[in-house]
Amino acid sequence: MPRKVKKDYVLTTSGYEYDKELARVSIKVVPALQALINNQHDLLKVLLPNFPEMKIFLKNHLAELSVVEETIASAHAKYNLKKEEAKILRRKRESENANQDTASLEDDEHIKDDGQLLDEQARKISPGLPSARFDTVMRNPTKNEILDVRRIAIGASIKALTNVLSRELTDDEILAIEKQVDSYL
């Protein structure tokens, strides 16, 4: 003989039976839901004075809307609390790391001389020096300087061919490039 299962009806304030499984889902307040709540408030403000015969239904709808807002507000408060706790925990970890760094620096200070300490601090502030090409000031050639067009053309040709072939050029190939550049100049 099968057991009879007594079915519990779970109703909202307006008498709507809701799904218990859906009630377990956490709330994600998407923009569409926010707009829907605001639109429902506006709609209820318009309908309440104009339809007195539906006043009970509209009041129940307004009560359910306030329950939704309270649920969202409590979920938002929990979210903010978790966020603040994570921020406090992160600050605590950062301060512990900073304390460990200063403690290890103090332990090493008596061993290292001032020059080494300055070098380490410089590396922490700036992890590397700029490359040599940024150190020298690039300047345009003046009228007094004579550009060696032949040398520039040969160098550019060698570099371009090396990049295309993905290998170094042989001496014979370089001589051939020089002859071709001379023939064009």
Task: Fill in the keyword field for this structure.
mainly alpha, 7 helices, 2 domains, 185 residues
Quick recap:
With 185 residues, this protein is an all-alpha fold.
What does this molecule look like?
The chain has about 180 residues and is mainly alpha-helical. The protein folds into two domains: about 20-125; about 145-185. Helix content is about 70%, strand content about 0%. The chain is built from seven helices and no strands. Helix 2 runs antiparallel to helix 3. The longest helix is centred in the middle third of the chain and has 55 residues, at about 55-110. The chain starts with 19 loop residues before the first helix and ends with a helix. The mean pLDDT is about 75.
Overall pLDDT level: 77
User: Structural class, from helix and strand content?
Assistant: mainly alpha
The tally of beta strands, per DSSP, is 0
Structural domain tally: 2
Task: Describe how the helices and strands are arranged.
Elements: H1 20-23, H2 31-50, H3 55-109, H4 114-125, H5 132-135, H6 149-165, H7 171-184
